[in-house]
């Protein structure tokens, strides 16, 4: 008997194999298969596990960049510095609580002053709703325009637009930021993007889908910039429009 034959007969190879450590599952219910076996009247049924939707949401969020840059931002660690910010936090918490239940309250708008933590609040809402299995998509306005620009064919553009139309909750950060200087209602290279933008917002308006925006302009200014887009956002944001004011700016302008 050769040495190799001896080893095989003794089964040393099998016995010395290192046992893999007990696997850690993200979901104990389905062991990450996405399926659960349900026993009903003595019959086994396969059912989609609820974690599947959550995992898809996490993947969608990760793809958008929010998980990396803002994964630690929550409503719980937002620290209000004045009454407006405290009020904004209250409304944000309420929004999470009743999300998807009322058409008139399906949007949330964080307007005005930079430095008030508008993005933090928007992401905080998004993260809270992901925990409630809502499919969230977050995008900065700048990246949204880029996505429109990168679509060379009408078919590609349609796909991009659909992606943002269909999200259960869409967060657009810093809406209209890059177009402010060009904005006179005149024809400019961004006008076709604004058309795509309208398709996204109008679809969401018609299909009762929640949209959160942050914007450095006031609500009035937003409506002046684009009545169609602004009007649809405002109409379904009742009670959820926060206009942050910059006390220092007031001071500089009014000298008080
Ligand atoms: Zn599961």
Protein architecture, described:
- The structure is a single chain.
- Mean pLDDT is about 85; it is low at about 185.
- This protein is globular.
- The protein has helices at about 5-10, 10-15, 50-65, 65-70, 85-100, 120-130, 140-150, 155-165, 190-205, 220-225, 225-235, 245-255; strands at about 35-40, 45-50, 110, 135-140, 170-175, 210-215, 240-245.
- It is built from 12 helices and 7 strands.
- With about 260 residues, it is an alpha/beta fold.
- The longest helix is centred in the middle third of the chain and has 16 residues, at about 85-100.
List the helices and strands and how they pair.
Blueprint: H1 3-10, H2 12-16, E1 35-40, E2 43-48, H3 51-64, H4 66-70, H5 83-98, E3 108-112, H6 118-131, E4 136-140, H7 141-150, H8 154-166, E5 169-173, H9 191-206, E6 210-215, H10 219-225, H11 227-235, E7 241-244, H12 247-254
Parallel strand pairs: 3-6, 3-7, 4-5, 5-6
Antiparallel strand pairs: 1-2
Helix pairs in contact: 5-6, 8-9, 9-11, 10-11
Bound molecules: zinc ion.
The site of zinc ion has 5 residues, from loops.
Largest sheet: 5 strands, parallel
Structure class? alpha/beta
Which fold does the CATH topology of the largest domain refer to? Rossmann fold
Low-pLDDT regions: 183-187
Beta-strand portion reads: 5-15%
Q: Which distinct ligands sit in these coordinates?
A: zinc ion
User: CA-to-CA gap between the ends?
Assistant: 100 Å
Q: Which labels suit this protein?
A:
alpha/beta, 2 domains, 14% strand, 256 residues, 49% helix, 12 helices, binds zinc ion, two-stranded antiparallel ribbon, 7 strands, five-stranded parallel beta sheet, Rossmann fold
